[in-house]
Amino acid sequence: MTDQPATDPLAEIERSLKPYRGELPTHARLPEEGVPREEVLGQLRRMADAEREKWEGGHVSGAVYEGEAEHIAFLNEAYAIHSQSNPLHLDVWPSAAKFEAEIVAMTAGMLGAEETPDAIVGTVTSGGTESIMLAMRAYRERGRANGIERPVMVLCETAHAAFDKAADAFGIEQRKVPAGPGHVADVAAMEAAIDERTVVVIGSAPAFPHGLVDPIAELSEIARARGIGFHTDGCLGGFLLPWAAKLGHEVPAFDFRLPGVTSMSADTHKFGYAAKGTSVVLYRGEELRRHQYFTFTDWPGGLYATPTFAGSRPGGLSAACWAAMVSLGESGYLEAARRILAAADEMKQGIRATDGIELFGDPLFCLAFGPAEEGLDVYRVMDEMSARGWSLNGLHRPPSVHICVTLRHTQPGLAERFGADLAGAVQAARAQPTAEGGMAPIYGLAASVPDRTLVSEFLRQYMDRWYVP
C-alpha cells in the first residue's frame, strides 16, 4: 500500500496479533523432537488465560454468546465424547445423522415450520457464511435448471458480506440497493431491481450493521408473486427473535410463516449457544435443498456425495450443538432472551442519554450509534472505548459503531458501566479529536477514500501478517 502514514498502522496491528513473541516458543518448523504433552498443554493454558479476561468480563461485541464455565465444560465434554466422529462416514458414525437431523428439525420448528403446510428441510453447516453460500449456490443451480445462465441476486447494501463472497465464488451478479429510511431495505427500490434473471431476493433479520429487521413480509411477497426465491438471513437473529416475540417484544414477521420465504440461515453457534463452528440452512421443500448438494459418480475412488462444502467434518461439533439445544430447551432460550433484552434496553438508555451521539432506530439487541454533533469522530469514540476495555465494531455508511449484546453483557452492573464509559469516551474524543495509534485513522481512511482498492490492499497485508509465525 502506498502513501502510508509515518506511524505504520500495520506494525501496530501486528504487535496486537503476535503478543506471544518472545514469551512463548515460536515454531516456524517442526521441532526435531516432540514437545512433552504437559508442556504443550501448559502453553495452551497460558494463552487461554491471557485472553479470557476481555471476553469473559463481557466487554466484547458478540464473539462469545454464552460463556458460563459450566456451559463451556458441558459442551467440551459433549465434543470429547464424539471427537472422533465424522459425518462423511455415517456407516461408522450414524449418531452424526441423528444429531444433525434433529438440529435441523428443532431449528425449523422454532422458525415457523409448524405453522406452514410445506416441508421445511435443511442441513447443518460450519457457520453463517457457509449457510449463506450454500443457499446462494442452490438458487444459482435452480436458476440454471430453469434456463437462467447469468443469475442475479437482489439485496440491500446492509446485507452480510457473505453474500458478496457467494457472488464472487459462484458467478452470481449482485444488484445492491441502498438502504432506505431507517437503515432498512427500501421495498420499492428492491422491487425495481428485480428482472427476469433474478433468482433470489435477500432480507436480513436483523442486518448486522444496525441491528434492524428488513421489511421481510413485503419483500418476500414481491418475490413470491414473481416466482422468485427469497432468503431470510437470520444468522444473527434466528435464535433470538422468536423468543423475543414470545416475551412480548415487537418483532416483524421474518420466517417460514411468510409463504414467500423459501430459505433461511440461522447460526446455532451464536444465540443457539453451541460451540463455534455450526449453523443451519433451511429450505421450503426438498427440491430446493437438492440444488445445494454435490454428487460425483465418475470418480475412480467410488461414489462421492456431500450435502455441504466440506468432505470430512468434525462430528463432535454437531454433538455439542445438539447437546446445547436439548439441554436448554424452550425455557432456557426464553430466559436467555429475557436477560439479553433487559441488558440491551439498559444499554440503549445509556446511548440515548449520552450527548453527541444517537442510536439508529430501535434495535432489540444489536445497537448501533453515530455522531449527533458536527465534528465528533465516532471512530475516536470507539478508540476511547477500547482504552476502557471494550471491543466494539466500527461501521461505514454512515460512520458508526455497534455492540451486539449477548449473555456476557447481562452480568450485574455491566450495562450501567457501558453507559458511563460511553459518556466518558465521547468527552475524551471531543477533547482530543486526533490521536496517535488506534483504529480511528484506519476506519476514517476506509470511509473516505474513493479508491477502495487501497483499503482492500491494506486488508490483504493484514491477513498476510496473520500467517507470519
Describe the structure.
By secondary structure, this protein is of the alpha/beta class. The chain is built from 15 helices and 13 strands. The strands form three sheets. It has a seven-stranded mixed β-sheet with strand order 1-7-6-5-4-2-3, with helices on both faces. Helix 5 crosses helix 6 (162-170). The relative contact order is 0.13. Mean pLDDT is 94; it is low at 1-6.
Gist?
This protein is an alpha/beta fold and 469 residues long. The chain has helices spanning 9-17, 37-56, 69-81, 94-110, 128-145, 162-170, 187-193, 216-226, 241-246, 286-290, 315-352, 378-387, 414-431, 440-448, 452-466, and strands at 120-125, 152-156, 173-177, 198-204, 229-234, 263-266, 279-284, 294-299, 302-306, 357-359, 366-371, 393-395, 400-404.
